[in-house]
Amino acid sequence: MKVIFSVLKSSVDDDLISYVVSYVIDNYSTDTTIAIVADKEIAALIDDALWMEGKNSFIPHFCAINTSDYNQYKRVPVFITDNVFVADGRDVVINITNSPINIVRHKFNSVIEVVDQNEKRLDSSRKKYMYYKKLNADVIHEKVGEYEL
């Protein structure tokens, strides 16, 4: 399995949300399903941002951050949730939580770990990297944005 660490230069939540929304808009296709796994607050902000960004080109999505929502709209192309268990079966999962995705238990074609410079997320990304390497995942790093050398 391929795991991509998309490393952002910023530590601002708005930049993280903008990156995820841009990724979804750029990669949306009726042939590919995307799950975004994030804490409830971030998930709700991504949901709102997709509604705003999708004014000109609607991206079908649903945000399930309550147990009553978890089993609704299972087939929607973009599924935003705080529960990785209800995200199973998607092609791509974008993970913004501090926990790795259990790639043995959960089946996705690829995992995108979005990492910003927030100290807590940066620290957890190092642990996630080691976790994925132990499972022999194909780990790739990509820097997003302008970086000074």
CATH topology type: Rossmann fold
Which structural class fits the helix and strand makeup?
A: alpha/beta
**Separation, N- and C-terminal Cα atoms:** 31 Å
Shape: globular
CATH architecture: 3-Layer(aba) Sandwich
Q: Can you tell me the CATH class?
A: Alpha Beta
The strand order across the widest sheet is 3-4-2-5-6-1-7
Major sheet: 7 strands, parallel
Strand content: 15-25%
Computed over alpha carbons, the radius of gyration is 15 Å
State the domain count: 1
User: CATH-wise, what's the superfamily?
Assistant: DNA polymerase III subunit chi
Number of strands: 7
Task: Work out the helix count.
Answer: 3
Walk me through what this model shows.
It is a single chain. The chain has 149 residues and is an alpha/beta fold. It has one domain: Rossmann fold (3-Layer(aba) Sandwich). Helix content is 30%, strand content 24%. It has 3 helices and 7 strands, in the order E-H-E-H-E-E-E-E-H-E. The protein has helices at residues 13-27, 40-53, 119-134; strands spanning 2-8, 34-37, 61-64, 78-81, 92-95, 110-115, 138-144. Strands 3-4-2-5-6-1-7 form a 7-stranded parallel β-sheet, with helices on both faces. Helix 1 (13-27) packs across helix 2 (40-53). The longest helix has 16 residues, at 119-134. The mean pLDDT is 89.
